[in-house]
Structure formats: C-alpha cells, structure tokens
Amino acid sequence: MPSPLSHAADLARHLAHRRARDRDNAQALTELLHRPLPLAPGLDLQWLGTAGYRLTHQGHTLLIDPYWSRAPLSSLLLRTPALPDPSLIDRYLPDPGTVVGVLVGHGHFDHALDAPALARRFGCPVHGSTSVARLMALHGLAHRAVTVQPHHPYELGPFTVTFVPSRHSRIPLGTKVPWPGDTDCTRLGQLAPQRYGCGQTWGIHIDIDGYTLYHQGSADLVDDQIRHRDVDLFLAGIAGRSVTPRYWQRILPLLRPKALVPCHYDDFLRPLHAPLRFTVDVRLSDLQDEIAAVDPDIALAALPAPKGTP
Questions:
Q1: What is the phi/psi pair of residue 136, to 5°?
Q2: How many Å apart are CA 150 and CA 72, to the nearest integer?
Q3: 229-264: b or e for each residue (b if 16 or more CB lie within 10 Å)?
Q4: I want to staple 102 with a disulfide (CB 3.0 to 4.6 A). Which of 43, 125, 126, 281 is the partner?
Q5: Taken in order 76, 261, 59, 164, is the CA torsion positive or negative?
Q6: Per the CATH hierarchy, to which homologous superfamily does domain 4-300 belong?
Q7: How far apart are CA 300 and CA 236, in angstroms?
Q8: What is the mean pLDDT of residues 241-262?
C-alpha cells in the first residue's frame, strides 16, 4: 500500500499540472456523455451532482445522496452552519412525482445535508445510518428517519433497496476517514460542514423489477459484505479511489457490473449553477484504462450535470 508521503508526492505532481489534467478530464467526460446507457424500460435516471441521483419509475421517485444546497468553501473554513436551501430544492426538483424515500450512503454534508428538507417537504422517509438519524432529529424529523439494518430489503414504491456495510475512503493522503463519528450536535446552529459525522458507510443495492443498480458513494468496501452479483449498473463514486488498495480489482469482480457510471468527480463546494469543475486529483481521464485493466467488457458512460429551472 502506498505511504502517505507517496500520496502527497502524487498530489503535488497533479497540482503542478492541474490545468492539463482538467483539460484531459473534460475531454474524457465529453466522450463518456456521448455513450449510450441502457436502462430498464420506464426508468429515468438523473445525476444530481456529487454522489446524488434521482430514480423515477412509474411516477415514483427515489433520491440517493441528494445535495443541491452546496456548502461553500467559506463555510468549511469558517465553520459556519451548512443547512438546506429550500429554493434550490424547488429549482432542481420541480416535478418529482411521488417521492417514496431518500437514501443516504453516509453522513457527510455532501451526501446528507438536504435529506431533512426533502423529508419535511414530501413526507417521505430517510434511510441511513445512526448519524443520519441524529441529523434528522436535529431538524425535528426523528419520526421520518429509518436507521437501516444491513442486508434487509426495504420496499419503497417499485424499488427494493438493500444497504450493504461498506467503508469510506481514507482521505486525505490515505491516512484517515474525515469526521468519522456520528453527528453529535445539539442544535442546528452548530452544523458546520465538519459536524456532519460520516458514521456507518453503506453501499446501496436497488432492484426495479429485476433491473439492478449498486450505488457506492465512497471508494472503499468491505469485501465479504457484497453479496449482489451481476448488477446492471454500478453508480461509482470515484473520488478517493487512489488511496484504497486495489479498489477496482476488489469490487468489480464482486459486483460484475454490465455498465459503470462515475460520480463524485465534481467540485462539491461550488454551486450547481456554476460551470462544473473537477475535484482535486480525481483523474477522470484515467478511468477507462483502470476499468479495462480489470474487465474490458464493462461499459462506461456518464450522465449530464443537473440543470435547474430558471
């Protein structure tokens, strides 16, 4: 396993050539956006930015890690509260149909921040960890929180959802999980980005009439907990994969996906209306070769960035 010094040197090389890297990333993204992505009949899949997705089938909508209320860098640096912005939910989710649930893979702000506002607006449950349940309670919505059990199937409209124990990648430099515990604030005014505790991390398996997806918001895993095979689509968070030993070599032979869509490559401290920028050292341009080295039959594609209503 590479040492923190090795990761630091690699990061320094990236920063020294960031403009060229970002041009390569942008070209790779353009190519991926033009590739077809076979979905189940009647299933609409939208990327919401970061690790977020909207799945709609038969008029029912399921949201995964929705994060429209982007916490700015200043909030992170000054430790000011990061809270949902209802106007952005209006802008980016104008016609959701029947929202049957919100799924949260772990408790960090870039995955969980908007979940309470969605539960309040649509009267839907939020499924996730103890950390996410504590966040919901802070918003006065403990009754909408479902603290999930591993491998238990949850029926949400036409979706059957299973949570798989997983791990968060150790960033920065492969040393530790950021903000690893459960959220422990006692009032909303304390909810700076750093106070959103990671808590238990989950992979999420979703079945829609036999069509299956697997969502991994952070690039690490617990190998022997993955029980689902031959998934149709792997929604793969790719930030942090370089610090996880043999990540693709471990997870791809377990899931055996037919297709893979990357996510969590955008700068999640920028507002969604701003032009997309890539997060530091994400190396989207290397993804095709990385996947092909493990299984050249896996199809790669990308989904467009979210566009809100005017």
A1: -60, -40
A2: 33
A3: eebbbbbbbbbbbbbbeebbeebbebbebebbbbbb
A4: 126
A5: negative
A6: Ribonuclease Z/Hydroxyacylglutathione hydrolase-like (3.60.15.10)
A7: 11
A8: 97
- The DSSP call for residue 194 is G
Indicate whether 297 pLDDT > 80. yes
Neighbours of 133 (CB within 10 A): 24
Domain ranges of the chain: 4-300
Structure tokens at 278: 């890539």
pLDDT of residue 5: 55
Sheet holding 299-300, edge to edge: 153-156, 159-166, 201-208, 211-216, 233-237, 259-263, 299-300
Strand partners, 206: 161, 213
Peptide bond into 172 cis (omega under 30): yes
pLDDT in tens, 181-209: 999 999 999 999 999 999 999 999 999 99
Question: What is the tally of helices (H) and strands (E) in the chain?
Answer: 9, 13
Q: What is the mean pLDDT of the chain?
A: 93
pLDDT tens for residues 56-93? 999 999 999 999 999 999 999 999 999 999 999 999 99
Question: 8-43, pLDDT tens digit by residue?
Answer: 556 556 565 678 889 999 999 999 999 999 899 999
Predicted local confidence at residue 30, as pLDDT? 97
Beta strands in 10-51 (DSSP E): 43-49
Judge contact between 215 and 303, C-beta under 8 A: no
Question: Looking at this protein, which amino acid is placed at residue 86?
Answer: P
Q: How many C-beta neighbours within 10 Å does residue 72 have?
A: 14
pTM exceeds 0.85: yes
Q: What is the pLDDT of residue 190?
A: 97
Buried b (16+ CB within 10 A) or exposed e, 276-301: bebbebbbbbbbeebbeeeeeebebb
Answer for the pair 213, 231: CB distance below 8 angstroms, yes or no: yes
Please state, in angstroms and rounded to a whole number, the distance separating the CA atoms of residues 51 and 264. Answer: 5
- Both structure tokens of 12: 């320094």
Q: pLDDT at position 17, please?
A: 66
